[in-house]
């Protein structure tokens, strides 16, 4: 099945929005972990790259 150019553009926009949402959630999670002094979980997510 061949996608039309307009559906490809929509797919690209959706991926951009998804990546922006992931970045926002990552930032919020890191801020929450710092604010709650949960450094163990912060290290788990940042050092082992579980937040990508």
Can you offer a commentary on this structure?
The chain contains two helices and no strands. It has 52 residues and is mostly helical. The chain has a domain at 22-52. The longest helix has 31 residues, at 5-35. It starts with a helix and ends in a 5-residue tail after the last helix. The model has no long low-confidence stretch (mean pLDDT 81).
Mean pLDDT: 81
Q: Structural class given helices, strands, pairing?
A: mainly alpha
**Low-confidence blocks of residues:** none
Percent strand equals under 5%
What characteristic shape results from the CA principal axes? elongated
Number of strands: 0
Run of helices and strands? HH
Distance between termini?
31 Å
Tell me about the biggest sheet? none
Number of helices, counting only DSSP H or I runs of 4 residues or more: 2
Helical fraction equals: over 70%
Topology:
Layout: H1 5-35, H2 39-47
Summarize this entry quickly.
With 52 residues, the chain is mainly alpha-helical. It contains 2 helices and no strands. The chain has helices spanning 5-35, 39-47.
Structure keywords:
52 residues, mainly alpha, 2 helices, elongated
């Amino acid at each position: 099945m061949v996608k039309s150019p307009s559906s490809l553009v929509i797919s690209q926009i959706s991926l951009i929005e998804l990546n922006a949402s992931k970045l926002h959630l990552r930032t919020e999670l890191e801020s929450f972990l710092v604010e709650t002094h949960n450094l163990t979980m912060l290290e788990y997510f940042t050092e082992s790259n579980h937040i990508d």
